[in-house]
Amino acid sequence: MHSPARKHFARVSAALAAGTVDPNQPQNGEQYELHAAALYEARRTLKGIKSTEAKIAKKRELLPEFDAYVAGVLEAGNGAQDDVVVTIMLWRLDVGDLAGALAIAEYALRHRLDTPDRFERDTPSIVAEQLAEEAMRQLEAPHDDTDEGRAQAANTAAELAMHLSRAEALTRDADMHDPIRAKLHKALGYAERARGGHAVEALRHLKRALELNDRAGVKKDIERLEREVKNAGEQANA
C-alpha cells in the first residue's frame, strides 16, 4: 500500500467510487472495503496497547496507510457516509495534525457525516472539543525562554489561532452543548493572547467562553486582558 503506484491507484479508485455512490447510502467500493478492513485491524492493534502515549505514537505510524484513500474521497466524494474517513479525521486530531483533521472536517461537516456508532458525540461536537483540547495542550507545552523560543511559541499560537478560527466557522451553526463551544472559544482566546498583539480579539473570545459556561475558568484572564487593553488605550491617547 505504500508504493507511489499503489497510493496513486488507491486515490484514483477511491475518488471514482466516492463520486458515484448515492450520498444517502454508506460508502462502498473495493478501496473502501480494503481500508475498512485495514482500519479494523489497526483498531484491534490499538486495543492491545494500554498507554495513551503509545496509542498516539501507533496512530501516527498507521495514518499514512490511509492518506491516499482519504485524499481520493475529499477530491471527488459526494457525501456518502464513510466511517473510514471520519475515523481518520479523529485520529489526526489525536496525533495533533490539526490541518489534516480540518481538511476532513470541512468535508464531513458539509455533508453531515455522522461519527461511527462507537463514538458518543456528533461530528461538530467532537471536532470542536478535540481540536480545542489539542490546541490547549500545544499552547501549554513548555518552550525555551529565549528570543528564539518565544518567537517559536508565538508562531505556534498564530497557527493554532488560524485552525481554531476555521473550526469555529465550520461549527458555528451546529447545535452543541454550550460547555463544548465554550472550550473552543477559550482555546481561541488563549491562542490569540499567546501570539501577541491581539488582546482585544483574545478578550472577545474569552468573554464568549464565559457567557457559554460560567465555570470555563477564564475570569482572571479576562480581568488581566481588560487591564492590558485599558492601559494600551491610555498610552495611545497620551
Model description:
The chain has 238 residues and is an all-alpha fold. The chain folds into two domains: 1-119, no CATH class; 121-238, Serine Threonine Protein Phosphatase 5, Tetratricopeptide repeat (Alpha Horseshoe), CATH 1.25.40. The protein has helices spanning 4-20, 30-47, 52-62, 64-76, 83-94, 98-110, 123-140, 147-171, 178-195, 199-212, 219-237.
List keywords for this structure.
single chain; 238 residues; mainly alpha; Serine Threonine Protein Phosphatase 5, Tetratricopeptide repeat; 2 domains; 11 helices; elongated
Summarize the helices and strands and which ones pair or pack.
Elements: H1 4-20, H2 30-47, H3 52-62, H4 64-76, H5 83-94, H6 98-110, H7 123-140, H8 147-171, H9 178-195, H10 199-212, H11 219-237
Helix pairs in contact: 1-4, 5-6, 5-7, 6-7, 6-8, 7-8, 7-9, 8-9, 9-10, 10-11
